[in-house]
CUB domain-containing protein (Schizaphis graminum), 362 residues
Amino acid sequence: MFRERQMFVSSGNHMTLFVRRLMANNQDEETEFLDGAYSFFNVLERGTLQPETLCDVNYNGRSSSSRGKLKHPGTEQIFWNVEGQLRCSQNLIPATNQSISIKVISLNKMSSDLCYTECGDGGCRCVKNATSIVDQLYVISTNDDILSCICGDFQAEWLPVTVKSWSPIKLVYSVSKYSWSNKGFEYSAEYSFKDDMVCGYRVINQHTGILESPIMIRDSPLNFYYHQDCTWLLDSNVERHLTIEIGSSQSRPCSAWNISIHEYSERSDDKAGQVLYTFCSREKNSTNTLPWQMNIVVIKLRVMTQTPPQYYIKWRSDVDRARLSGSTAHTAAANRSLKLTNNWTILLFTVIFVYVKQMKNS
């Protein structure tokens, strides 16, 4: 009787498998057998295999090679009895102040009438019926947003397709119908981690300052995409009016890139709460003065485009003169009232003293 396969993964360099028969039955005519497969996994070349998965691997910016090659899974012997839909992900995780680039170099065996690929400024996308299950190779963000997707009748001259990101991304290999005798499509790609400080998560405590977009030179003329998800937490630490000015010389749609201002929230990992305002480059310039005492906000930049964004973000914490004047006037009035009360107290004691002295003399 064929039973569903079991898989075991060891983080060490050796593993022993003991097979024990529960009871002997010499009258059985059918020959019993055990079949299986094993594979040694080179972490430096193929990433770190994730527990309880067949083919999901992680590449970390500080522990993995700074650059390397990626290829289609499914050719190893451990896939011998896999049948049906196959999905494998290669997760590339840059460290702080790092970027990651994935470049898809070659593809073949992806012909399908149910899906085709379109490439534009916002990335390549797979055009298909929502219910269709087809072969796909796509790059997604940590929020599972599809950054680029390739399927069906893909034009070879569109290659390479490159996505450069400053946050973790995944290259997902999805085969609609896999079997050992009819394996999935083939591809080859490259990845590279690079040290830079273009984007990330930063906490800024200055009362006044400016953030400007860095100068980035495109590395490829065709189908090269920038993906950014930057977060700045502005904490002025004073009870003042926080004014934020955002500007750009570009005129791009909000889907290409945008900057949003959020309330501070402890509930979210990046501290970004409700959206207060979203800036798009077609506005050219916008100035927002936040309510009194809202001295801590989160600013987020989101980018998915072929053209690097151009922007500046200025902020300042202004003293509210009216509130300070009101506070000073209130203090002065309180001092005058206290002084008047003290004078009346002295006069009352004087009258009582004179009255008592006259009574004694009489």
Summary: Residues 327-334 have pLDDT under 50 and may be disordered.
